[in-house]
Design a protein that fits this description.
The chain has 193 residues and is mainly alpha-helical. It is 47% helix and 9% strand.
Length: 193
């Protein structure tokens, strides 16, 4: 009997970063997810190759709609291992200019993925508490974990701030009461970050 090596799962990760304008929109998210999934799966790579060929062998940039269609085609393939898509810091996707805003476009995309009702597709989205994100994602979520009021998280923040204050060469020379004030102020205002 010959055993074949099989992938147990496919995963793709994207971090929205307010400091990096190339990591703030659905247009940035989609190619990243598509590339990550296609890098480890021949069937997914075939779908990406078709997208490439359909756009004059890469001479034309695909539209966002074409990218959405490509990703959905990948996750809808039958007989594939589970797919995990992790989207981190969604709150760092801008919610300002444009109709719809970049954040609304990402939320709409996520709604579309969830509505596919694919048993092998698993989404994990992290965000600070933002009302627009909560309003869209809470009805879609099968599980929800909040870290905002967790005492363990608060202790970790205090420990981290204390460590930085006590190990920084400049802050080490500060008076103890100044160090305590910095640690208390930063820890109280960290808001889970």
């Amino acid at each position: 009997m010959i055993l074949r090596d099989r992938e147990l799962a496919s995963a793709a990760y994207f971090y929205f970063d307010f400091r990096d304008t190339s990591k703030q929109t659905r247009r940035d998210l989609l190619p990243s997810l598509i590339f990550q999934l296609s890098a480890r799966s021949h069937p997914y790579r075939d779908i990406l190759c078709r997208l490439h060929l359909d756009h004059d062998s890469g001479a034309q940039a695909p539209s966002e709609d074409a990218l959405v269609k490509c990703l959905k085609e990948m996750v809808k393939l039958p007989n594939q291992p589970p797919v995990y898509i992790i989207i981190d810091a969604l709150d760092e996707c801008p919610n300002s200019s444009g109709m719809p805003s970049p954040r609304e476009q990402v939320l709409d995309f996520l709604k579309g993925l969830v509505k596919l009702s694919l048993p092998n597709l698993h989404l994990c989205v992290t965000s600070r508490r933002e009302i627009d994100i909560q309003n869209v994602l809470e009805p879609l979520a099968s599980r929800r974990v909040s870290l905002h009021d967790q005492s363990g998280q608060k202790k970790d923040i205090v420990a981290y701030v204390t460590s930085v204050v006590n190990s920084d060469s400049i802050m080490q020379r500060w008076r103890d009461e100044d160090k305590r004030l910095v640690i208390e102020t930063l820890s109280e205002r960290a808001n889970g970050m």
